[in-house]
Specification:
Blueprint (H helix, E strand, L loop, with lengths): L4 H91 L6 E3 L25 E3 L2 H32 L1
């Protein structure tokens, strides 16, 4: 059998051409995959950086809120202790008779009563008819105002807390 060398040569050239084309295509796909891999890696890095930045911003906001709330709580506690100290002083002054509570009485309704008029530079009402309160009643009034003061301070603290949360 005679082998046509020309045919073998042509076939070898065709196969070599296919092989180089296959290699070129493989190289091209490899380059595209490498580029996609690089872009994908960059995108993941950007997402990770953005996530870390967002987390840091949220932590900073939380820390700022915690500091505001701590300052508000200290202020609330200071107001509460100041009010308590003032109430205690007032109770002590009432107990030692250093201070007496009195009420204004309508001059028309008290015309039959012989009550002393308030005197002294410290009075606000000029020549008004006043009646002194029993010390036990004065203590109860002070206790009621103490409860009211505490309630108002607590309400203000709650309002401050909500305002801090909203900002």
């Amino acid at each position: 059998m005679v082998v046509p060398w020309r045919l073998v040569g042509v076939l070898a050239l065709v196969l070599a051409g296919f092989g180089s084309a296959w290699q070129f295509q493989d190289w091209r796909y490899g380059r595209q995959f490498a580029e996609q891999s690089r872009l994908h890696g960059e995108a993941l890095n950007q997402l990770a950086t953005a996530g870390a930045d967002a987390q840091k911003a949220e932590q900073d906001k939380r820390l700022a809120l915690e500091q505001k709330l701590a300052a508000s709580e200290q202020s609330h506690y200071r107001k509460l202790s100041d009010a308590q100290r003032d109430q205690d002083r007032l109770r002590d002054r009432l107990a030692t008779a250093d201070l007496r509570l009195s009420v204004l009485i309508d001059a028309d309704s008290a015309s039959g009563c012989d009550l002393p008029k308030a005197t002294g530079a410290g009075g606000v009402d000029h020549a008004a008819v006043r009646a002194r309160l029993d010390p036990a009643h004065a203590q109860r009034i002070i206790a009621i105002t103490d409860t009211g003061d505490r309630g108002l301070i607590a309400l203000q603290a709650c309002q401050d807390y909500v305002r801090n949360l909203q900002h």
